[in-house]
Design brief:
Elements (H helix, E strand, L loop, with lengths): L2 H31 E5 L14 E5 L13 E4 L9 E7 L5 E4 L2 E4 L2 E3 L11 E5 L2 E5 L4 E3 L23 E5 L9 H4 L2 E2 L16 E10 L5 E2 L1
Antiparallel strand pairs: 1-2, 2-13, 3-4, 3-13, 4-11, 5-6, 5-8, 6-7, 8-9, 9-10, 11-12, 13-14
Amino acid sequence: MSRDTKLVLRIAAGAATVAVVGVFAVWFSLHAVVATYRITNAAMMPTLHPHDVVFADKFSYRTVGPKRGEIVVFAPPLPESGVFIKRVIAIPGDRVTLIHGILTINGKRVNEPYTAEKAEYDLRVADDTIEIDEGDGWHALDRSQANIPPKSAWRAPDEIPPHAYLVLGDNRNDSEDSHIFGFMQDEGTFASGPAAGARARFEARITRIGAPAERARNL
């Protein structure tokens, strides 16, 4: 083999190595910021259907918390539950009620075109907790079963405390969400409930339905 041939082979091998490293870098970068999930239940109907494949931005919440209306991925304050996908309804500092299916935040009615039907329960943030009325009168969520920050964390008894979020499924009557497990948090550890002491954080923001093709759209 001539010296020129050996030089060409070395250059080709070097180029191939660079290409492989480049491809790996792109793959790693994409997986660091983008995730895919397959919807397995009807909790987010009619927005997300069972078997939909959705794309999520894993970078969104590294520096800021979720905004109202965003669809988020998180591990809820429940033991061995995997990840949940819900909609952020209210954020820290909000005063919120859901009465007869009408959502009110900070005294203003909020239009919710994404919901499947009117909730069969009423909800309010009051007395340093979340209260629910399912037709038998108001009662506070059981702190042994729900994540409720301690009274010392609340700035006002009817105002969602710092780092706490109210998250609900669009299919209000077929969703395990904040009306059952309490608040989600963007940092720290869960204050109460069966997952008390576990790390709390939002993992990603759903940005697009990718499949099936006929339902593909940005969210």
